[in-house]
Every structure is written in structure tokens, then in C-alpha cells.
Design brief:
about 20% strand, 20 helices, 7-stranded mixed β-sheet, binds zinc ion, globular, single chain, DHBP synthase, binds fe (iii) ion, alpha/beta
Length: about 725
């Protein structure tokens, strides 16, 4: 007899019926059951080793086997193979993320003879809502928002049949018994007629429609209509930030360049937005202005398949939220933002945004880890106390952990907004309840003004405050299972330093418990703090002034602004010192005439990256820099760029040289640290590592010089991973690890 234990995401994803079918096919006898630890199997019969192999090879698409172990024991007597009732004990049942509608369901959805033909809530054990509909655990229909829909006999017969694809599919539904779509105007009055054909008509006529999906609302409009996109940008107060476009797989090649692996990613149950090189296309210019890339995704909820057609092949599907707020779960939250709402009566309890992946030549940047990932646990090789790590401010997440498991919240928005704070508190409560973790330790950022820090301070728990960039690096270490001293590089926007200055261009030697700041960019004056960050030309003015360079060529800065900043530089009034590499990007970008004012984070860094036009840096020059006495001196770089501008050098060449210079001063600093410490493992972290030229360039050059490089891969490099790093550092400093 064989005993098999499997853990990972193996519940609510059709695992037991799969085992049942496989065992029956292989003539095995025994049982399968869900337990707190995952799935347990006992089986007698022939070819038991093959059975294990086939489980691994043929597991349902939405499942994820983290661990499978087996042992052979003395035979027991079994008459047949059965699915036993779940063992409910103290442990945690994992909650599956929401899953894109599967191919089998799409086939039925398109089949006129199927009882679920054109039914927007078709799902099965391989697909559909999970996380978004759960009120409490264990995951069972009465504990989801499907509880108010009583199953009809047809659905029930499938639900109870172990050989059916919908065996124990908790959200099972059909047009007779399940949720229904409806179209309403923005006074929330129902519009009569077929909701889908009306929606298509309205979209064709240039209307903006809020569409309720699996995990939240999208705001949708025709991606080929310039006027409606302009109107949407106005309403969302989003002048430049690119929008994502949804289309069917067969239309992808008309708008972006992609490889087979990208298509696989797009078609996965996560169905993320993937950012790919844009082709010359029929889409409106203002979908992703001044951007060589385009975020695309495929339909993943049944109603998306209905809306996309030859008449309407490309639609903008942007998160249904107000700036920096959480994604809406109810049309009331969006009010007049949309002209109409295509909504439905299956409530969304737990919202999550679309996840975003940016493939580079060598890496894959997970820019947002949300729908399709959340709330899957992550394993760390270390034991932690029950811990709540409260995150940072922008791109806010929290993480909660116990022993070797971390659960990270979806991306929640910007902590400065009231709605985000409320959503944050609710989600913290839910995670504690579902995963049965009662925190004994709290961790937060060093920055005292963050709402997340203030939340942590009120928890009445022992509190560890963690330096922002240490947390960035620890997150990368943990995803690569490192628990030793490494060279940690954090190239970032803003993080509070132990000297109360604004850090962001940092090279550490660190483990989880401690860090030593080996190098940082020399401090430059950030005049007026956050206001300057929104108007980077002020940063450029102050930086150039500070190093005694000419500032006359800067545009979009008034004489009055210049006078005020000059005064402030003299008096040090409201001047912060910063070593941020994000601010250096802001400075250089405005010197090259890009965006004197920005409307979204990292806009100038992206613009500088785009200026290089994906060209190789091989022939680019390297500007002079100095790396000594713990300082990477960027002043010679700025002076050289000023000279290049004066001499009429092409801006593209300057942008390339600037990137190459960063790559080379990084190598210089890392080599000096190696000479001193012998450490050759390097972790790359921080929001600026989302720049693919830097990420690929630094990792390539360091690898060539025999360093082992670890880059963010399954966690974002931006601030949404801060909470993960905080868990590890907080516990290390408490001496738990
Ligand atoms: Zn399905
Ligand atoms: Zn039904
Ligand atoms: Fe950061």
C-alpha cells in the first residue's frame, strides 16, 4: 500500500476528483481526503510509483504541488476507491486565488446546446472565483457569497458526482439558479434589454462602462476611440499613466510583439496583465502615450468573452478605482465615474486588482502581485513568531506569518487615503481569522509618519522598526531562500534612513538581523520634499545649482520658483538630504527635456529607459564617477551630462550613457566590498530595479565578474514587498530565527 501526502494549492481546484478519476482508471483502491495539511491518499493495487508520477504530471491546471511525499506500508483492505469526508482539525486550509475561466468552461459557454450557454457565471473546479467570494473558512458554499443561491437539481447532480468536473465546485451555478448580470445607469436604475448587447452598443458609441468581474470592477471603454479615452483620463485624473488593453488571443499579434512563453503566461489561470513591446497598431495614441510598451491581457471572466467581438476587438480595462484607492467591489463606490455599469448580484467580499508582469530579456518583473496570486502562501526557510508586518505607504501590502509560512495581502492602494486604511484594517482582520494567526510581534517601517507605522504602533504588540531598504533586500533574499550575509543593492525612490535622511541609492552588506551601509549616493538637496517629487524640474534645478552648473536650459520652471529654491538652498529651510537614485533619474530626465511635471510614480525613470529605445549599451560611454569612502559620487556624472547637453549630444546617447554609468559604478562598489569581505552573493532590490535596462545590465555585468546575482522574481521589487522583508528582519532582530 502507498500513503501519499501532498501540500500546496490542492483544495478547491479539482484535486480530489482528479485523484479519484486517476485511481479508478488505474484500478486502484483506497481513498483520498482533504486535510489541514493538504491532500492525503491511501491506495492499494499495481503500479503505485506510476500513480505518484502521474499525479505530479497530470495535476489540474489551477493546482500547485509544493510538496509530495509517499511511503509504502503494509496493505490494508479496501473495496473500492472513495473520496472521504474532509478531516477538519486545527490547521489551516489554504484558500485558492481567483482563477481565470478555463478552456472547458469556455467551450461550454460557446456551445448553444449547453445549459450554461452564454452564462456569465459558468465555472468549475478548475476555474472561477475563490478568494473573492470567501466570507470565512473552511472554503465551503455556505461560507461564500454563493450561499444565497440555492443550487438547482441539475447543478446539484454535478456537484455531488465525483466523476464530474464540477464535483464540489463551490461557486457552481447555472442560468436557472445562479447570479445574473444587469446593466444600470449611473443613477443605479436598471436599463431594460439584454445587458451584454446593450453594453457592446454603448461601448461602440463611446461610453465608459464599469464592469464587475471576478475580483473587482474594471472601467472599460473602446481602445480605438481617442475622445472617450481622453474623457476617461479626465475623470480618473490620470493624464499619462498607461492603460491596459484586453483582447482575444487571436488579436494579440496586431498590437504587441510576444513569444510563446508570454502567451502561456497570459493564458494561465492567473491571467495577468503582461507588458510587451507595442507594435504600430490601430489603437488610439492615448492608450499608453509616449510609451513603447503596452500592458495586455486576455479575457478571463466569461462576460469578457461576450463583450469582445469583431465589432469591438480591443477594450481598455483599467482598475475600477479612484486615484490611489482600492479597487471597487460595488458600483456605488464609483458613482458618476462611469456612464453605466454592467454589474451582477454575486457580491465580492475580497477584492484584488489585476496582477502585472513585465518580462525583460533576462528576467521577469512581477510589478503587481494580486489577483491569481493572493492569498497563496509563500514558504520561507526560517521559523517566525506569529507576526504582522505592516508594510510601507505607496503600493501598500501587509504580510502575516507563522513558522515558515507568509501570507501577503493583495496590493491595497496608497496608505494615505482613508478608504485604503479602512480596507487595510478589514483585510488584516480577515487574514488573521482565515489563517488563524494571532500576531505576537508587529513590524513596521522606520518612517514615523506612515499610516501603516501608526497602525502598527496601536497594536499593543512588541514592535520592531525596520529600515526600508533593508526590508527591500530581505524580501529578495527570502524568495531565494538565502539566510546569510549578502551584498544588498537597493535602488529605490524614497526610504527613511537611520540618520533621518531620505535614502534610496544604497549598497549594504546585510543578513536578516543587521545591515551595514557600505556605499550610498552622495546626499543631494531635495527642496520642498514631496512637492519636488511631483515636479522633478525643481529637483534638477536644485541639484545643478548645488554643483554650480548652469540651469538656464531647464524648462517649465518660473523665475519665482527658481528664487524660492535658491533661497531655500541657502537657508536650508525645508530642504531634505537624499541619496535616492529615483531622484537622480528625475533630475536627469528633466535635464533631457522629459516631463517637468509628473503624474505617476516612476514616470521619469520610465521615460529615460524608453529614450534608450531598447538599444544595446555596448557603444555607449561611461561618465566619470567616484566610488570611495562609502560614497558613490554622482556629481561628476551630472557635470558630464551638462557638458554633453551643451555640446548638443543626442539625448538618446546621454540616456544610454547614464544607464551604463549606473551599471558600472555598481560593479565598482560591489568589487570593493568583495575585496574587503569576500562576499560574492548580490541581491538586487528596490523600485528602480523595475527598470529593465538596469536590472538586466547590472545582473549581466556582475555575473560576468563572477558574482552570483539574485533578482526579484516572484515578488515585486517595489514597495509592495516591503512587508515580506519586514517579517524576516523583525523576527531576526527578536532572535527568533
Ligand atoms: Zn472551468
Ligand atoms: Zn443550476
Ligand atoms: Fe521602496
Amino acid at each position: 500500500m502507498i500513503k501519499i501526502k501532498i501540500n500546496g494549492i490542492v483544495q478547491g481546484v479539482g484535486f480530489r476528483p482528479f485523484i479519484f478519476r486517476l485511481a479508478t482508471e488505474m484500478n486502484l483502491k483506497g481513498y483520498v481526503l482533504n486535510s489541514s495539511a493538504g491532500v492525503e491518499i491511501e491506495a492499494i493495487g499495481e503500479n503505485l510509483e506510476t500513480f505518484v508520477k502521474r499525479i505530479q504530471n497530470e495535476a489540474p491546471p489551477a493546482s500547485q504541488i509544493d510538496e509530495i511525499s509517499h511511503q509504502f506500508t503494509e496493505d490494508k483492505i479496501y473495496e473500492n476507491f472513495t473520496i472521504k469526508k474532509s478531516k477538519s482539525n486545527e490547521g489551516i486550509t489554504l484558500i485558492s486565488p481567483d482563477l481565470a475561466v478555463c478552456e472547458d468552461c469556455v467551450t461550454e459557454f460557446k456551445n448553444q446546446k449547453d445549459p450554461r450557454y452564454n452564462y456569465a457565471f459558468i465555472n468549475c473546479t478548475n476555474c472561477g472565483p475563490r478568494y473573492s467570494i470567501i466570507e470565512t473558512t473552511p472554503y465551503d458554499r455556505p461560507k461564500t457569497t454563493m450561499k444565497t443561491f440555492e443550487m438547482c437539481n441539475y447543478c446539484k447532480s454535478e456537484y455531488e458526482n465525483p466523476l464530474d468536473r464540477r464535483f464540489h465546485a463551490q461557486p457552481i451555478a447555472c442560468p436557472k439558479c445562479g447570479p445574473q448580470l444587469k446593466l444600470i445607469d449611473n443613477d443605479f436604475n436598471e436599463v431594460s434589454g439584454n445587458p451584454i448587447s446593450q453594453t457592446i452598443e454603448l461601448l461602440k458609441n463611446g461610453k465608459i462602462i464599469g464592469i464587475k468581474g471576478i475580483s473587482g470592477f474594471h472601467i472599460c471603454c473602446d481602445a480605438t476611440n481617442f475622445e472617450v479615452i481622453t474623457e476617461l483620463r479626465k475623470r480618473k485624473n490620470r493624464p499619462h499613466k498607461p492603460f491596459a488593453v484586453m483582447c482575444k488571443a487571436e488579436n494579440l499579434a496586431k498590437i504587441v510583439e510576444f513569444e510563446e512563453k508570454h502567451l502561456k503566461l497570459l493564458k494561465s489561470p492567473i491571467a495577468p496583465i503582461v507588458v510587451l513591446p507595442k507594435k504600430a497598431n490601430k489603437l488610439s495614441q492615448n492608450v499608453a502615450p509616449q510609451n513603447p510598451n503596452l500592458g495586455v491581457f486576455l479575457p478571463y471572466a466569461p462576460q469578457h468573452y461576450q463583450i469582445l467581438s469583431d465589432k469591438l476587438p480591443f477594450i481598455i480595462m483599467t482598475s475600477g478605482n479612484l486615484n490611489n484607492e482600492p479597487i471597487a467591489a460595488d458600483e456605488k463606490e464609483l458613482g458618476k465615474l462611469c456612464d453605466y455599469y454592467l454589474t451582477h448580484n454575486r457580491p465580492i467580499i475580497n477584492r484584488s486588482d489585476d496582477s502585472i508582469i513585465i518580462p525583460t530579456k533576462k528576467h521577469q518583473i512581477l510589478a503587481r502581485r494580486s489577483r491569481g496570486f493572493v492569498p497563496s502562501p509563500q514558504k520561507i526557510p526560517l521559523k517566525t513568531l506569529p507576526t504582522l508586518a505592516c508594510g510601507a505607504e505607496l503600493k501598500l501590502t501587509f504580510s502575516i506569518s507563522e513558522n515558515e509560512t507568509i501570507y501577503t495581502s493583495p496590493y491595497l492602494g496608497n496608505a494615505a487615503t482613508k478608504r485604503t486604511q479602512q480596507f487595510y484594517r478589514e483585510t488584516v482582520e480577515n487574514f488573521q481569522k482565515w489563517f488563524r494567526i494571532q500576531p505576537e510581534l508587529a513590524v513596521c517601517d522606520l518612517q514615523p509618519d506612515f499610516a501603516s507605522t501608526q497602525f502598527a504602533e496601536k497594536l499593543n504588540l512588541p514592535l520592531v522598526r525596520v529600515q526600508h531598504h533593508h526590508a527591500h533586500i530581505a524580501a529578495v533574499m527570502s524568495e531565494h531562500n538565502l539566510n546569510e550575509k549578502v551584498i544588498g543593492i537597493a535602488y529605490d525612490g524614497t526610504g527613511y534612513g537611520t540618520d533621518k535622511k531620505i535614502w534610496g541609492g544604497e549598497i549594504f552588506v546585510n543578513n536578516y538581523a543587521n545591515f551595514e551601509r557600505k556605499f550610498h549616493l552622495n546626499y543631494m538637496p531635495l527642496v520642498g520634499g514631496d512637492a519636488a517629487i511631483r515636479k522633478p524640474v525643481r529637483i534638477a534645478f536644485a541639484y545643478l545649482k548645488k554643483i554650480g552648473e548652469n540651469t538656464d536650459f531647464l524648462k517649465d520652471i518660473s523665475e519665482m520658483e527658481k528664487n524660492v529654491i535658491s533661497k531655500q538652498l541657502e537657508t536650508h529651510f525645508n530642504v531634505f538630504e537624499t541619496s535616492s537614485i529615483g531622484r537622480l533619474f528625475d533630475c536627469v530626465a528633466t535635464m533631457l527635456d522629459l516631463f517637468p511635471t509628473i503624474s505617476f510614480e516612476a514616470q521619469s525613470a520610465m521615460a529615460l529607459e524608453f529614450l534608450c529605445e531598447r538599444e544595446s549599451l555596448e557603444n555607449a560611454k561611461v561618465y566619470p564617477f567616484k566610488v570611495e569612502n562609502k560614497i558613490i559620487d554622482i556629481r561628476p556624472i551630472l557635470k558630464a551630462i551638462s557638458t554633453d547637453i551643451k555640446n548638443g549630444e543626442k539625448f538618446k546617447n546621454i540616456a544610454k550613457a547614464f544607464h551604463k554609468t549606473i551599471i558600472y559604478f555598481t560593479l565598482d562598489a560591489v568589487q570593493q566590498i568583495y575585496a574587503e569581505t569576500g562576499i560574492n552573493k548580490v541581491c538586487l532590490a528596490g523600485g528602480v530595479m523595475q527598470n529593465s535596462i538596469l536590472l538586466d545590465g547590472i545582473s549581466e555585468l556582475l555575473s560576468k565578474n563572477n558574482f552570483t546575482v539574485f533578482a526579484p522574481q516572484n515578488l515585486p521589487s517595489n514597495d509592495s514587498s516591503i512587508s515580506v522583508g519586514q517579517i524576516l528582519i523583525g523576527n531576526a532582530q527578536k532572535g527568533v530565527l
